[in-house]
Amino acid sequence: MANPIKQFVIENKVDLSIGGIDVSFTNSALWMAIGFVVSVTFLMIASSKKSMVPGRIQILGEMLYMFIADMVRNTIGPKGTRYFPFVFTLFVFVLMGNMLGLMPYSFTYTSHLAVTGGLALLIFAMVIIFGLFNHGFKFFTLFAPPGVPWFIYPVLVPIEIVSFFVRPLTLAVRLFANMMAGHIMLKVVAGFAAGTATMGVGYLALGAFPVIINMMLIAFELLVAAIQAYVFAILTCVYLKDTVDLHH
Residues 6 or more apart from 176 whose CB is under 8 A from it? Predict the structure, then answer.
């Protein structure tokens, strides 16, 4: 049976080194580039005609645009529209990583904690920077909400600080863990099907069962891929709301 963990191994496609630092072009970078090309090509085609009676691709593009725009507006508020380009790009990047990773011989870059962790740290750097830019040092009242009895603050403030700084970890781990677990499950079930196929004609019927299960799992993983991109984007909106509304 094939090793289900092998699909997550980073492999160099082009070996590069600058000043002794390894900057090789890897399979992860390759599929990020593919995701970029696919998403940009789709959006360019979808927005090229701008017909009054839109075609299928234009409808999909407009639905995607309106879906993210409504998410940002409903979660952050009218002032949050400034974050729309960032949230839209983030959603498409994560969605491409999740979806493309289901193709044979592909690589799921969102199944690596380095990628999801990098995105989470970028989001929280934005929250802190824009929070201080918009509210100044008043931003730190996020950890000490007004209207709370004074004797509660010694307990409340540490809890709020820990909660705030744990957010990037939970945001990163949620996406990475879901993608890794799903792909391991697919690989294991596919391994059972391949294993029974090599055992002889008498086991072909037995091998059909894991094939059917795997088809169902692929459909489920497509749903999970879309849901996880949505969850990542909407949680980003929730966290960015602190830069607009401190005590919402």
Answer: 110, 111, 112, 113, 115, 116, 117
